[in-house]
Amino acid sequence: MCRYRRINVELLVLLLAITSCREAPNPSREQSKAAGQAEPVSAKTAFWEMYKSAHSWAADRAPLAVVSKQVTGVRNQAGKAGMWTATFASPQRHEARIYTYSVISAAPDIYKGVTQSHPIRWGGPTQDALPFETGQFSVDSDKAYETAAAQAASWTKKHPDKEVSLTLGNAARFSAPVWYVLWGEPKSGYSVLVNATTGAVVKQR
Q1: Is residue 24 part of a domain?
Q2: Where on the phi/psi map is residue 179: left (φ > 0), alpha (ψ -120 to 50), or beta?
Q3: Which of 71, 163, 193, 194 could bond to 203 as cystine, CB 3.0-4.6 Å?
């Protein structure tokens, strides 16, 4: 599985800076065949599998972030991804842990289903990175993407080749966790924040 050296529990415009899983550069023929049959999934589909797995680590686990990832052989589209990560924190343990859900296995270190990192020391909530309740996670990634895409339509028409990423996180300046939908890079791309409870647009750039 992917190795995580550390976690920086601060969001850059709600983009939690975590060490990302590496994509597999050369999947085998068998993996390619399996990948061709695999479909990307929405964040909620992956999240609940990771949430259930995290229970065996800490009953008090609370989500900090959910992030879309790419895995070789599965095309992310319309707010769905072939791989997702979720970062959970345990207040009692003062630790955080990153879980990964992938729809396929891909050499050398991505496995189908749920995998987990080693626990990492967690200093507690900050103004820019707060745990959120699962009940606040009402709007799935595909719906958030649909809302954001409507706002970004004119920009994406001019930049059709830009990849899109989605991050769910929470901060004190928002009333609920938000989806950070980003086309391209933070400095030069286009982003939209969507309230993950109501589905309303919070901000766009």
Answers
A1: no
A2: beta
A3: 193
162 Cβ partners below 8 Å, 6+ apart?
A: 156, 183, 184, 189, 190
Angle CA(147)–CA(164)–CA(10) in degrees, nearest 5?
A: 90
Domain that holds residue 57: 7-18+37-204
Domains: count for the chain:
1
Number of residues in the chain? 205
pTM for the structure as a whole: 0.83
pLDDT in tens, 12-45: 333 343 333 333 333 333 444 444 579 999 999 9
| Token code pair at residue 120 | 């990492």
pLDDT in tens, 87-104: 999 999 999 999 999 999
- Structural domain contains residue 23: no
Q: Is residue 67 assigned to a domain?
A: yes
Residues 6+ apart with CB under 8 A from 21: 2, 69, 71, 83, 85, 100, 109, 110
Ramachandran region, residue 115 (left: φ > 0; alpha: ψ -120 to 50; beta: rest): beta
